[in-house]
Amino acid sequence: MSELFDAVDALVASRSVLPPPAERKRLRAAHGLTIDEVATALKVRRATVSGWEAGKTEPRPPERDAYARLLDKLAELYPAPTTPAAPEQDTAVPEGSAGKPAPAPEAGTAAGAPVAEAAVVTATENTQTGNTQTPASAPASVAPAPAAASRPAGTARPSSTSRRPVAREAAPAGSPVGGTDPRFANGPLAVVDVDADGQVAAYCTGGLVLDVPAKSLPALVEWTLREGKLGAPRLSGPGKDADPLLVLTASALERYGLPATLSDEERHAGRLPEGHRVIKQLVRAEWKLTKRGLGPWARIYRPATGSDRQCVQLCIPSWNALDPRSWGHARQLAPADLARVLGVYAARVMTPRGSTAVTGLELMTALHPPTRASEPDADGRRHSEHNPGSLGSDPVDCAPCEAPDGHPLLSDLPRFHVRGPAEKLFEEAYDWARPMTDDECTSRHLVGIDVNMAFAAGANGLAVGLGAPTHVKAPGFDAKLPGSWLVDLSHVDLARVRVGKDKWADLDASLLPSPFTPTGERPQGPAWYATPTVAYAQELGFDVAPIEAWVRYDNGRYLDGWYQRLRDAFLTTMADLGVHADMEPADFLAAMDDYRNRDPELAIVVSAVKATVKGGLGKLRERPRGEGWKPGQPWRALARPTWRPDIRAAVISRTRINLHRKIVKHVAFTGQYPVAVLSDCVVYAADGPSPLDFLPYRDGKPLPGGFRLGINPGLVKWEGTQSVLWGEEVRERFNAPELNLARYIKDGQVTDKDSGE
After folding, report:
1. Which H or E run contains 471?
2. How far is the CA of 83 from the CAs of 79, 87, 135, in angstroms?
3. 690 CB contacts (<8 Å, ≥6 apart)?
4. Neighbours of 382 (CB within 10 A)
5. How confident is the model at residue 146 (pLDDT cuts 50, 70, 90)?
6. Alpha helices of 477-619 — where are they, by DSSP H?
């Protein structure tokens, strides 16, 4: 009979009535549970629980039975309040909110997105003492505005007009919560969206959702600065706090009179025309726009008065602010999920200032502000002075050999003159390949390994110039002095090189790329090189005799802090995805398998961090971008102190040299030569499909100075495996014996698309 009773109980439970969505959320929050914790317990996806709480979907057996049991238990612990909270007498009423009734309970957004993990509070305020008291029996809802009907407990979004502290739930992995600085209590940014009822909501980090009363873009800016409590503290003592970032969804654009997409003409210009009515609204309200105008990334400000900075930044995804090459499918995310992605990036890198490339460059400046306050003078006043270790406030001219084609320094050259290696510094990443040997063709697989955060690792500990270069004739080479050196390295023969102190190795130079050119070809005479390249020639055991040089005596490890912050952001996010820095090789390879699908939102952050590294370094030598530029004329980027092609060249030089050093160590120990190298990816022929089938691990330890599997920057991961037959067929099909197979090793698809990896 007990089995029959159990069956009857299960049948009754399967048809039991669940509490409404808002009550489900209230009960979870009351017990301090996150959506992730509930999802893990019920063995469902986070989005599934979020949909149940938003009323978008209903649970089905067998999860429904377990979910009902959970809610029943929580309801016993936290019964619903029977009386509404007393009306709040708030004298600070922002524009458009006076006498406005509280909006109806939210079930989702206009786009069908759930209000994820909204922070919910119930409180009664002692109007005489100003103290806030929270009932022990239940979490509370912010009291409604005067003359407004109250919402059921647990359904209200906290209003930014309240002066009470807002309680937050424990956030899931990778969900930052507002910092301790009370000025930025609601985090660095908000995604502004409008629901089907016309209610504007600001989705902040940590699951917080704020009601927004603003009915125009100028009013939205005012609300953000006065009530929003958005922004982030400075990253360096002399620096500036990060301005609030507002991300406008398509529904918010419509609400505030902006187009959902830009026209072809507007997209080409990168902004709305000056006569647009919303821009006129901003002008009438005495707000200004930067030279960038009102485009995908816009800055709206009033001139600062003293230390009072009034500036709000806009990000408009539907205007292509979030480039899919860096941000993947971020623009398709629901508002709460997009706030989480951008919030994690903001907390671990910095609040986005534009594209990932722009943000990468801005991060350098934020960590090394150009000026600082001086010591007090005789009158006790402080003045702005140069901040040591920074690039300063004024741009410096590069050396002629460092200048890209079309630079004003080269205006005297004939129009169609092509500069050769002896005139132009050409430090770029590898693009080298060779035909396979007969022995390699007998192998079964081609295995690609890829260096993690290779260019970030190349920047770590690198001394770079901080000021202008000095020209020197016939200098003695100094490996510790940043600069560009004209030197003949054609005598360096890789057939016999030094691979350690007083240790030499005999190699087959025809199977190796030269370390001195991006193509891997041996140099034919004098050429310009950055310091790391020339220093490597000495390391290999060869003499160097520079003919001339442009050196920078004022130098320092400018990029160390930049590297460390991006490294930590990368490693922390990968750890959230289950890939840790201390894993054994086999465990690491297993953890990397399909890691992006464990949390696709955090995987977006990983891609954005990597794009920040490459893009930021690329911005150091930004080229003209239209604007009617002609060769020989200056372009806008040249006015920046951070336009430093010498720093970019030094990082790329060191990255390429780091890779070549590992290749040589590997050859000297194993006799295995690379088949192809593309940037930070190396392909080897192997008998097995895994990197462990050819990487030498002795007693579980990697070859010192060689390739090592791991997630840390500078270590390697598996990039992809294809068959040797695939490689030969591809080269035969394209009639290209030296086609770079590293470009296609990941998925085997031969296209002209560059993944950037």
Report:
1. strand 470-473
2. 12, 12, 12
3. 447, 589, 718, 721
4. 11
5. very low
6. 531-539, 560-576, 585-592, 600-619
Nearest to 614 by CA among 517, 712, 519, 713: 713
Q: Give the bridge partners for 190, in sequence order.
A: 204, 246
Report the b/e string of 119-150 with b at 16+ CB within 10 A. bbbbbebeeeeeeeeeeeebbbbbbbbeebeb
The predicted structure's pLDDT at residue 415: 82
The alpha carbon of residue 361 and the mean position of all alpha carbons in its chain are separated, in whole angstroms, by 12
Please give the pLDDT value at position 698: 79
Cα Rg of the chain, angstroms: 30
Cα–Cα distance measured from residue 398 to residue 418, given in angstroms and rounded to the nearest whole number: 19
Q: What is the pLDDT of residues 343-400, one digit of tens each?
A: 999 999 999 999 999 999 999 999 999 999 888 888 888 888 999 999 999 999 999 9
Q: Is the dihedral of CA 627, 632, 637, 640 positive or negative?
A: negative
Are 426 and 528 in contact by the 8 Å Cβ rule? The answer is yes
Exposure class string for 60-87: b at 16+ Cβ within 10 A, else e: eeeebbbbbebbeebeeebeebeeebee
Question: 């030598």: which residue's tokens?
Answer: 621
Q: What is the pLDDT of residues 190-216, one digit of tens each?
A: 999 999 999 999 999 999 999 999 999
Eight-class DSSP state of 364: H
Q: Is 392 left (phi over 0), alpha (psi -120 to 50) or beta?
A: left
Burial class, 692, CB count within 10 angstroms (exposed 0-12 / middle 13-18 / buried 19+): middle
- Count Cβ atoms below 10 Å from residue 45 Cβ, excluding itself: 11
Q: Of the candidates 56, 38, 173, which has an alpha carbon nearest to the alpha carbon of residue 598? A: 173
Residue 418's Cβ-count burial label (10 Å; 0-12, 13-18, 19+) is exposed
